[in-house]
């Protein structure tokens, strides 16, 4: 029994601890009391599937990815930006998420999310790409 307690105590010391962020430093959405410390901007579209119905040989997916790769250095150079590409082979989603701390995101927003307009125009011009949209969220 004492060996069991010693083992439990040892495991508890090694267990990962949850990272807690002080709510005092985060903005709060009034009414629902949701706090956050980062804001994301998403650019998304649908791409046309290939002849088999999947993404493997999709010309529009390939072109969208090449476009993203050409803008990736600019996006990664944004202050404290985490850039993620999400692609779904089933529903044909292609998404780029730029996640930043609130203050950095506010500065990017004040600059009209540059180079968003240019990127979105080029993405919209790719044959087979549809439903091009942008969204901001926490």
Give a short synopsis of this structure:
This protein is α+β, with helices and mostly antiparallel strands and 138 residues long. It contains 4 helices and 6 strands; from the N terminus they run H-E-E-E-H-E-E-H-H-E.
Characteristics:
single chain; four-stranded antiparallel beta sheet; 4 helices; 6 strands; 26% strand; globular
Walkthrough of the structure:
With 138 residues, the protein is of the alpha+beta class. It is 36% helix and 26% strand. The protein has 4 helices and 6 strands. It has helices spanning 2-14, 59-76, 102-110, 116-124; strands at residues 28-29, 34-35, 38-46, 82-87, 93-101, 130-137. The protein has a 4-stranded antiparallel β-sheet. Strand 4 (82-87) and strand 5 form a beta hairpin. The protein is globular and about 50 Å long.
